[in-house]
Automatic annotation (TrEMBL):
An annotated GO BP: carbohydrate catabolic process
UniProtKB keywords: Glycosidase, Hydrolase
Family: Belongs to the glycosyl hydrolase 1 family.
Organism listed in the record: Enterobacter huaxiensis
Record-annotated active site: 360
Protein name, per record: Glycoside hydrolase family 1 protein
Any one of the GO CC terms: cytosol
Amino acid sequence: MKYAFPDSFWWGSASSALQTEGAREGETTWDYWFAREPNRFHNGVGPQQTSTFYQHWKTDIQLLKQLNHNSFRTSISWARLIPDGIGEVNPEAVDFYNQVIDELNEQGITPFMTLFHFDMPMAMQEIGGWENRDVVDAYARYAQICFELFGDRVLHWFTFNEPIVPVEGGYLYDFHYPNVVDFKRAATVAYHTVLAHAQAVRAYRAGHYAGEIGIVLNLTPSYPRSQNPADVKAANVADLMFNRSFLDPVLRGEYPADLVALLKSYDQLPACKPEDGFLIAEGKIDLLGVNYYQPRRVKCRDSAVNPQAPFMPEWFFDSYEMPGRKMNPYRGWEIYEPGIYDILVNLRDNYGNPRCFISENGMGVENEQRFIENGQINDQYRIEFISEHLAWLHKGISEGCNCLGYHMWTFIDNWSWCNAYKNRYGFIQLDLATQKRTIKKSGEWFAATALNNSFDRE
């Protein structure tokens, strides 16, 4: 069967500044944390050991062109552009990002630019990070500077990438700095992130730029174990906390009443100001990026909550392992391709069918050297992963979902937070020792798919 996609469909990949650039002036929370706890990072490999995009951007963009990308998402590093978060702009960073943006445009690759992809300047974290409204204002200033510097040539902006992840990692589950476990502080961080997003949107609108502004959310559909009301309720709470806590403010301009009522009943609401509601209403976006990797399967709790334990989302649900599920064993994630369709249908039916695109989707595999044939990694498993997801994406589009593109995570095998280089995700193999780049079989497959705007599968 042939799967053909709409004209001008965005074919590309996604990456981030911190995971690819290397060599920075400004210290981030990741640099700080790695210097103190290198044992928390796979094989002790930290954020300095990247795929050296800062040095190789020109040849890397040639590789993007070779893979027939018509679009590419990366991020600006706040800590590179404004090392202390609030002070002088670093002219070398301006030159670097100008060169990257100009080269992408010259090669016919539309730049999609994210303003915040987990890399908080350490100077901002030292005054409380997203718990501090001063940091919200500093971010808004940083965003405005980016729009002024690059907004004439970047026409697709994203305020945040996966804003729920620093909330979960930094303030609930201890997998990002500052390693706090405190729900109310987590709720404050989430709330202030939405305010920061809305301030950036307001600044963008005020500047009357030619492009559009949005946000990238990792949407993880919550599936109940059964249709038993207790399981359905558990899945709804998970959806409220992990999806709708950002989805509703950015698409509807307000928080779900059920979420507010739930947090209020447990005294977990962040401090709000009367004018916040007006600001949040102004933060409605033009374009939604959807990162989809895995589903969340949920059942009602089987046991009573320990009243002495910290208040957590898991007070309301347990995770559920569906029998017969398909797994990526290297990442420990379920592979469930229809989830991408379910997300699009939910957006169509419940959120007014917003303009959206798949901004990340991918699979990380360990020790891919096992699959080298004639000097090239034969990653047929990745081709199958992408084509299965694209088939469900195609179904959504054919049923009227307003999805405009597909970006794979990622372009070149890159550094991946605490996992470092444990799992490889790229279309292009990176030899860490030599920085040599070699296109994998999946890269060739994607290049052909993008060129033809279609693919065939049985």
